[in-house]
Amino acid sequence: MKNPIAITARISPKWIKDGTVQGRYALVQQLENKFYSRIKQYQNSGKDTFEYIQKSYSYVLEGHKYAIVKNIEPNTNEYSAVWLGRQVMRDGSLSDNITGYVVKLNNTHTQEDFAGVNIEVLMHESDHLFSYFTNPKYVQRLIKVSKSETEELCYEKFFTDYFQSPISTEKCTSALKDFITNLVPKEQKIDVLQNFRYKLINEINGYNTGNKYLRKERELYPDKEYPVIFNQVQIMHLKEKLKMLSEILKETIQEERKLR
Questions:
Q1: What is the CA radius of gyration of the chain?
Q2: How many CB atoms within 10 Å of residue 28?
Q3: CA–CA separation, 156 vs 185, rounded Å?
Q4: DSSP code at position 162
Q5: Could you read off the pLDDT of 6-42 as tens digits, one per residue?
Q6: In sequence order, what are the residues at sequence separation of 6 or more whose Cβ sits closer than 8 angstroms to the Cβ of residue 68?
Q7: Helix (H, G, I), strand (E, B), or coil: what is residue 217?
Q8: 3-state helix, strand and coil shares in percent for the chain, rounded to the nearest 5
Q9: pTM greater than the 0.85 cutoff
Q10: What does the pLDDT look like over 204-240, one tens digit per residue?
Q11: By the 8 A CB rule, do 229 and 216 touch?
Q12: At what angle do helices 189-220 and 136-147 cross, to 10 degrees?
């Protein structure tokens, strides 16, 4: 994996006291808690705008990292997400160099929001953003897999259709085995499965984080009327799908070793 991740798109090693998966995610949680505290300060000061979401990210990342916040235009099919920020070449094309990230947010104006963005969504995407910064290997894998995508073999669509949906674990398992066996090139199987695994872990973390801060918001303002909080991790069977995916990945790695 030779795709370079610029220093503006990754956390300095001095910030990472524990390089394990658990240690890196503990740092993500510290960063998002600092971010939430900052936007609440701005909100209490009447600075409840997109500009101050941007300023809050800059504050948390100490101004050394590159994260741009964009408002999704109304009446479009886009949804809130974090995109890789690629370096623009002189001819206008995009290189594989990742210089930072773009946070696109829907302005929905709900009971619990900051700058018109639902707190649950804002913190969900913040979890993704800080996870990218603390896990450059994940970003490298994402780039590698996305470069091999074609219109007929769209990994992102498969993930959305089967993992990030209420489809049962059984149907997801059957579809994944068929997909990996009959469509994904042999040399890409482990990378694709590993990328799916990273994405699934990130979605579980993102949904849990969103609900965590949504509950905090409701504790701060208990007199407001709020809609029901949905547990998307349960609704979409994400933990069960992660367990299944991890087992298939393990089997695929073992099969690959036998052929060497």
A1: 19
A2: 23
A3: 16
A4: I
A5: 899 999 888 888 999 999 999 999 999 999 999 999 9
A6: 54, 85, 100, 101, 102, 103
A7: helix
A8: 60, 10, 30
A9: yes
A10: 999 999 999 999 999 988 888 877 888 999 999 999 9
A11: no
A12: 130
